[in-house]
């Protein structure tokens, strides 16, 4: 299913003339990054410097760090990374940060590619206005040791809007704002070579609008409950399959009507609610977290459920922070374990 | 502060004539387990087999696995662990599990110590009635390859009741139930050598009631927001210090009145709400998660806050699942980094 998801997104991108730089914040796995690149992706996006270090170490090229790298020790690490990965790109949204990057790259005798990050209105990262975007792009272009690579515009909040029409309308409005900035930059001789952003939730809308040159899709490789309830392409069909599962096990069943499984707050992300149960229980069974180590499953009235030692399979509520709890993937084809892939970037949140 | 917390709990236990087997589910660290044992603890509790494997590998003795170990592969691992740690103890709450443990221990030619787990009424793990406790204790005692070690009674839900009097009243009522079972076992010739349970939230009440022989305290080593708001000993004073902190960094500050830090859903447990901000911001600053990688801090009206590259220090909302996101502790005395301790049991949720 993972391979079909990778192939399906690659085919979509080819058909719509847009490039992919999938986000490794989802999978944290060089094995998956290699498969995405083999299917045509330009490289991988990385949320943090630590994630990029792991990907570069594993030989993954075409890396773009999508959050600002600001501290002096981090910029020192960035220069070491640039030495091994000359095509590395980093985003920036503040003149002080651009100045620090320019000084560091000059001191290292290297050229660092910088993408100007533009806030789409959610006030997370990015410059706050078209004027600030223009000023920062000029600053980057004027710095001898920096290369102005383009712009980033990531509408994170919009990715999980469940109704396609609402998502499309809001993204269309936001993308008009981006288009205005791209035009202003172009008029100033700063036409962005790269316009990067988008995600699994908006990829079809982004591709249709034609402003982005590449998409930072992440979750499509695995899918999760949050995205499964979104109509991704406006046709009511699911273009990607649920490829990531958590196998839990019943460890206690002393009270009739319920059982306790070995997967709690330490086994999956909790901010997106309870995980749907994929298999191993009677219809109508409900799930409730029962602390750090366990969860309780409750069976419908009068129905008996699995006893101790039974396997209960869950859909992750939110894939990225769930993956970030585990050290390895167990790769299964049908019912056969075919490989174990390390989650090499796990915990690299800095 | 960690060392003072370890010493304070050890002194409390000595003064009250109760033993400690602190829970490694909190710290996942052999370095901390060793310090607890040096201060007088009997060993460490472990939530899962995988955690016990890591602790045993690091030479920690006196291990008690507090959740049932049920699957055939897990019992095989348990026997391998028993070979290296003959004083290992495991809890059980189901006759089928006791039978499987007895068969495995007999086949391995070893003696396994089993603690009968009693449900205090929260229906997570443990036998559901005094009769079931007696029957399971008899089954354990009758199995040649098992050693009946005692009982476990863990009131997890009660640990975080904020008001001391309510916590005391509920625990007193629950402990009366436990006491009845202990008396019934004793009358049957099955007096439990070990009565284990309790936690940071109830330790003072448990010690006063005199039914437990040892306490499974965990969070006291670090403390967290959940426990900081609990009156732990009924005197309104905090017996333990906040020893665990998250240093975040401002990575974006493009919008007046707010800033973005580099710590989001992947950097701390989220089920216990937002982390209080310990330092680095003006009074009245609020915290809001902003996705997997970031959070937003918002300053009071008209007050300016830290700019990019500033450090903002947070109190973990809930220590155990926060620790489970990191690979190492940075051990600080005053302002000096004095050591780095691996979180060797991280991710060992099975």
Strand order of the main beta sheet of chain A, please?
1-8-7-6-5-4-3-2
Determine the most extensive contact between two protein chains: A-B, 60 and 61 residues
Note the quaternary state here: homodimer
Secondary structure tally, helices of chain A: 11
CATH class of the largest domain in chain A: Alpha Beta
CATH topology of the largest domain in chain A: TIM Barrel
How much of the residues of chain A is beta strand, in percent?
A: 15-25%
Task: Give the CATH architecture of the largest domain in chain A.
Answer: Alpha-Beta Barrel
Biggest beta-sheet profile of chain A: 8 strands, parallel
- The total of beta strands of chain A comes to 16
What is the secondary structure topology, with strand pairs?
The structure is a homodimer of 350-residue chains.
Chain A (H helix, E strand, L loop, with lengths): L1 H14 L3 E2 L3 H4 L2 H9 L5 E3 L2 H9 L5 E3 L6 H13 L4 E4 L2 H14 L3 E6 L12 H13 L3 E8 L10 H24 L6 E4 L5 H7 L4 E2 L9 H4 L17 E7 L5 E4 L15 E3 L6 E4 L5 E4 L12 E4 L4 H5 L4 E6 L2 E7 L8
Parallel strand pairs in A: 1-8, 2-3, 3-4, 4-5, 5-6, 6-7, 7-8
Antiparallel strand pairs in A: 9-10, 9-14, 10-13, 11-14, 12-13, 15-16
Helix pairs in contact in A: 4-5, 5-6, 7-8
Protein name (chains A, B): DSD1 family PLP-dependent enzyme
Organism (chains A, B): Vineibacter terrae
GO molecular function (chains A, B): D-serine ammonia-lyase activity
Quick structural summary:
Chain A is of the alpha/beta class and 350 residues long. Chain A has helices at residues 2-15, 24-27, 30-38, 49-57, 72-84, 95-108, 130-142, 164-187, 203-209, 225-228, 319-323, and strands at 19-20, 44-46, 63-65, 89-92, 112-117, 146-153, 194-197, 214-215, 246-252, 258-261, 277-279, 286-289, 295-298, 311-314, 328-333, 336-342.
